[in-house]
Amino acid sequence: xxxxxxxxxxxxxxxxxxxxQAVRMDKFIILRDRTGLCQVNVSDxxxxxxTKLSNESVVTLVGKVVMRPEGQENPSxxxxxxxxxxxxQVLDVSEAADQLPIQQNHHILPKEEIRMxxxxxxxxxxxxxxIMKFRSDFVMKMREFLTSSGFLxxxxxxxxxxxxxxxxxxxxPTRIQDRYYSLVQSPQQFKQLLMVGGLDRYFQxxxxxxxxxxxxxxxxxxxxxxIEMSFADRETILELTEQLIASAWPHQLNIPLxxxxxxxxxxxYGSDKPDLRYDNEIQLVTECxxxxxxxxxDNNLGTNDNIAGLIMFESNDKNNSxxxxxxxxxxxxxxxxxxxxxxxxxxxxxxxxxxxxxxxxNNAVLKKCAPAVKEALEAKLSCADGIxxxxxxxxxxxxxxxxxxRTLLAKDIYKDLEQRxxxxxxxxxxxxxxYEEGVLESAHHPFTAxxxxxxxxxxxxPLKCRSLHYDLxxxxxxxxxxxxxxxNSADQKYVLxxxxxxxxxxxxxxxxxxxxxxxxxxxxxxxxxRLIAILTxxxxxxxxxxxxxxxxxxxxxxxxxxxxxxQQKEMYFIKS
Amino acid sequence: xxxxxxxxxxxxxxxxxxxxQAVRMDKFIILRDRTGLCQVNVSDxxxxxxTKLSNESVVTLVGKVVMRPEGQENPSxxxxxxxxxxxxQVLDVSEAADQLPIQQNHHILPKEEIRMxxxxxxxxxxxxxxIMKFRSDFVMKMREFLTSSGFLxxxxxxxxxxxxxxxxxxxxPTRIQDRYYSLVQSPQQFKQLLMVGGLDRYFQxxxxxxxxxxxxxxxxxxxxxxIEMSFADRETILELTEQLIASAWPHQLNIPLxxxxxxxxxxxYGSDKPDLRYDNEIQLVTECxxxxxxxxxDNNLGTNDNIAGLIMFESNDKNNSxxxxxxxxxxxxxxxxxxxxxxxxxxxxxxxxxxxxxxxxNNAVLKKCAPAVKEALEAKLSCADGIxxxxxxxxxxxxxxxxxxRTLLAKDIYKDLEQRxxxxxxxxxxxxxxYEEGVLESAHHPFTAxxxxxxxxxxxxPLKCRSLHYDLxxxxxxxxxxxxxxxNSADQKYVLxxxxxxxxxxxxxxxxxxxxxxxxxxxxxxxxxRLIAILTxxxxxxxxxxxxxxxxxxxxxxxxxxxxxxQQKEMYFIKS
Lengths: 576, 576
Known about the structure:
Two copies of one chain form a homodimer. By secondary structure, chain A is of the alpha+beta class. The first copy, chain A, folds into three domains: 93 residues, CATH 2.40.50.140; 257 residues, Bira Bifunctional Protein, Domain 2 (BirA Bifunctional Protein, domain 2); 142 residues, GAD-like domain (Gyrase A, domain 2), CATH 3.30.1360. Helices cover 27% and strands 25% of the residues of chain A. An eight-stranded mixed β-sheet of chain A has the order 6-10-11-23-22-21-18-12, with helices on both faces. In chain A, α3 packs across α5 and α8 packs across α11. The radius of gyration of chain A is 30 Å and the shape is globular. The relative contact order of chain A is 0.11. Chains A and B meet through β1, α2, α3, β6 and β7 of A and β1, α2, α3, β6 and β7 of B.
């Protein structure tokens, strides 16, 4: 291959194929394939035509490997830059049109629409080819680890039935009137049923489907590394996963990874997936506002869970004020759901903070407070110049807002973020349930087992009951999650029916299975696309998928989704 | 694990989990997991309750490994049959209901509907567990071979757009009105585009979808081992595939495999996927019927491609007449399409043949012919007692009918068929196009390249043009197929538009890609489910799939396909 031609082959005749990267001085063809570049010397007049080929044409040639004349080596090509190939014979030519929409020898990338429309040209870029190779290697190493640990690679169906609450499931009409498959969001039910079936160690690199209706950086189909194990407790799965990841990790990975409690990360970072490449903990400053003389604070702080929180970043940029304004707007936008939900709260203030020479300047809230408040706050600052936010309101509002602002500020302030050491850790001891719009919902999914220390709370105070769910977090992104599962049919029925109010007829097969000899079991799923994107420093998960869809779920290359024929609609008993 | 307890662990305390296979004499529990069985001795009164558990309950126990008393060893259990575990502690119990619908210690299998409804119980059978392990191992060996040969494992989308002639494609409505994804029947377009993209060696164990509308032994989703390679010719792919299969094959595989030509297998066996575990070639006996004095034969044989063919099997069974009648009916039924298509042919006779002591007895056609015909035919018989068929008509009718009868007769007559040596070989030199209901259609798919020896025929007599398609046949079943692809846009356009009359707007992205520097390339796809079924001696591909669907495409366990909500229909702009 092109990158493999070297002085070791000196004097021998080789057959070589590749894309014309460039033609120089009507005499030298730079040929490219996945392995690299090599130079072909066309001295023979007979073959001169080949130097007229447009870039990106494909040729197969025979020639003799010779040393380049002294001074003409190209060290940037590596070994193949020391030699060139004297053309003897042209075996095959597949000409490319002139002026392709993406040229490999241009340094500026076309915009993403063009790249997606001509994805086959975009894929010729070394960066994407290296990612595809990295992904293939990474997955293979994981497979090697899992199979050698006694796990069986078992394929499960993607055409399944709707599940309770399956609002994000794509549907697939069938030839039976008014009956639809649903595309699975994950193999969750199947992998649990495999455990009931005695196939005690399962894994699958599984294609999953979720109709997010066009969220950026989501794909309608995605891939997860899916694992389930019988007779395993939480620690077994955490250790297994750590070893699995370490086996494929491109660098040394220090395991065991830290295990942080949900309660702790929420309090320190306002997020269940904080980015720990920087510290910047949230400070609770409710005490500073005692007797503030600002009525809305004095009337509310300390009641109904209302608190005051502060997040600060050191920064002496001249644009601090602009930045804090921009982040304030971004965080409001991204927290729209939260702010709407809490619109009923009496207290709800987000106040940007700019610190200069140890002084908080121009703060709208502090202006209305007694001077002692400002002094008390300033005593808590860890930097002389910086920006941040003060947030007041119910704890469930304040902490996520500060958590979001923490992430946004770090992105703007820490320019070296992507060069910092990766930070991976577990979050454990999640709550089993959360209040969502006034009703209890599973914090993760309804098959999650309660924490044994809180089992007594399941039936009397489920909101206080922790679960055996765990999340794996890398650089502030959730890259995996799993749990010990409920394996007792009475508990499973109680959770589904009494707590969540679900229609259990849609899950009767699973509940029945739990009554037929179900082992305790636990598992995990890792989001492969995101994991690879982080590891390869890709800008988007679209860069780690060979043929991604746009944010609107469109394939811009072939034009999917598309219209179908009337016959197809008739066959599937549907009308548009 | 249960099957791993052995005298090597003598005296040590072990923790063991498994399913209660049986309880004997209120004292011995036989515990089972995927690895085997072991016996637990419950002598302590304190734990007697555990012997009351119903079969298939799951327990986790601690006990001490001791030798069984002399004479009580169970050699059928292997090493674990030499010892037993003295129960010390019961750690966990998950009780099973009484009288499960599938009991592991019963020897008669329930009917398939029950097995599919309670698939998680059926999966506890050793036979199915062994198949799942075999499949996992087999696929892993293939992956090892391919990755070590420089192939990249690249995932391609399953949500795509409709393709020309995509009548068997499932559709997936989207949130864009009247726009549908189609589920891919194979990654064909994507893998060719990867070649254009310079990712020159691709493989994927790919999930594919085809709506066959309830054909037995087909599944709406299935798996293929999908491979594509740039700068490869036919022989490269045949050799690569042979090495790939040999690397995973459970026994010694003699490669290279035979390469048979389409023309040859059609003439000898009346099928492009003949079963060569037996010889039984078709004989052309048109000559025997010269001057038969039977007008319909004398008027037609020798004209319009009309021929007479004979297939014979040695058999001295008393039920020969019954068998030949049965096979005659089966073959007629399975060839309904053929016989209807040829209903316009003047000559079309299928005549069962029974041979006793070298004489053809009671043959309806021969009765109407001159005696010399019977004598001439009998001179051609290779057995004294046997059965078979005489078929008269156009060659395209006679050969497939005889081929079908050859397969059906062998199934009834060769009782040792499944014990015979497996026969795998390539069929090459297929025609590019076939007449189907009066129009030219691709014999395989429209991306198949013409045979270089016939390239001049492509534009003047396409029906005579052979292609570079190849099929891999094992024991009379097609287990794979592929081809060298067209990589020239003018040829691709000509085939699609001029020969097949397709709407090329639906493939414009592919044609355009061929104009942007497309390397010559070739590939193959192997049907994994069928291959595993043959290798494991499974009765059906349903036995090699963890959660198969019924012949009607139903998941009998969870009840898929199912009704969906009105909100879902609204969201996808569809009405039933």
